[in-house]
Design brief:
2,3-Dihydroxybiphenyl 1,2-Dioxygenase, domain 1, eight-stranded mixed beta sheet, 8 strands, 3 helices, single chain, alpha+beta, 2 domains, 133 residues
Length: 133
């Protein structure tokens, strides 16, 4: 159900260093880092086991400590599309239309919305288009 989650931080470099030190005790490290140029405004990194970032820390245009990012696993790209449409119809604000996000990996297909309480919610499918159900 939960694919990954993230928190907005006040000082990205400080928080990255903090979580690198703390999560290393559990065997987790930085799996991927993204820049503002790659994402259109967010810089951050994902921690987890090799090849699978589950916990993100970063800085975007939001206010630290206000809201969270929660990504839900979708079984197909059609489910991602349906999630986004349902969220907007239910009153969410668009935060990124369904589409590929190749800066994460070549098959990353996601859509983003801001829920009524200001949380950035996402549905993501990691499958290649030809294996989409």
């Amino acid at each position: 159900m939960i694919d990954h989650l993230g928190i907005e931080v006040a000082d990205y470099a400080r928080s990255r260093a903090f979580y690198e030190r703390v999560l290393a005790t559990l065997g987790y490290g930085v799996v991927i880092e993204v820049t503002r140029d790659m994402t259109g405004g967010y810089e951050g990194c994902g921690f987890g086991p090799p090849g699978r970032p589950h916990f993100w820390v970063g800085k975007g245009d939001g206010e630290p400590g206000r809201g969270a990012h929660i990504a839900f696993t979708a079984g197909s790209r059609a489910q991602v599309d349906a999630f986004h449409a349902a969220a907007l119809a239910a009153g969410a604000l668009d935060n990124g239309a369904p589409g590929l996000r190749p800066h994460y990996h070549p098959h990353y297909y996601g859509a983003f919305a801001i829920d009524p309480d200001g949380h950035n919610i996402e549905a993501v499918c990691h499958l290649p288009a030809d294996t989409d159900a």
